[in-house]
Amino acid sequence: MVRKAENARERFESAAYSLFGEQGYAATTVPEIAAKAGLTERTFYRYFTDKREVLFWRAGVHQLTIINEIARAPAGIHPLTMVARAFEAVAPFIDSHRPFVKLRQLLISTHGDLQERELMKLHMLASAVDLALRQRGIQPSLSRVIAEMGAAIWKVALENWRADKGEGNFASHVQAALAEFRAELHVSERPG
Prior knowledge:
Pfam families: TetR_N. With about 190 residues, the chain is mainly α. The chain has helices spanning about 10-25, 30-35, 40-45, 60-70, 80-90, 90-95, 100-110, 110-135, 140-165, 170-185.
C-alpha cells in the first residue's frame, strides 16, 4: 500500500519557490524540486503535471474561497462590492505568503508560458464568479460584466500589492482598485 507523503504538495511548493528564487524558473528542474523537498520525482508527478503547476495549484483553492464568500454575502449590496469583498477573503493568505506571492508574480511577468496560464486562470475565476452571481439572482449579462470587471480588479490589486514598497495589505489594494474603478465610471452602490 502506497502512503501519501505528509504535506507533499506544500513541500514541493516551498522547494520550488526556493529554487526559483536561487537559480531562476527556467533553470530549475523537477528532479531538483523533488530532491530539495526530500521526496521523489514520481511523487511530484502525483501532485503536479509539471513545474509550472506549482505556481498555479492554489488558484482553485482561492477560487473556492471567493465563490463561497459570494454565496454568503448579505443581500442588498452591489454585485461588484460583493465580488471585491469576496476577494478580500483571500487577503490573509496573500499577505502571510508575501515572498512567495511576490516571486510568483515576478516569474509570471517575465515568462510568456506563465502569462498564458495566468490568463487562463483569470478566465476561470471570472467564469466561476459569473456563475456564483447568477446563482444569487443577478441577470446573466450583468453577472458576466461584473465578473470580468472583478477579474480586472483582482489583477490590478495584485499588481499594485506587489509593487507596494510600504507592503500594504492585499485587502486595501482590492478596495483601492474598486474605488478607482468606481470613481472613473461612476458606478453607484445600488444593488444590481
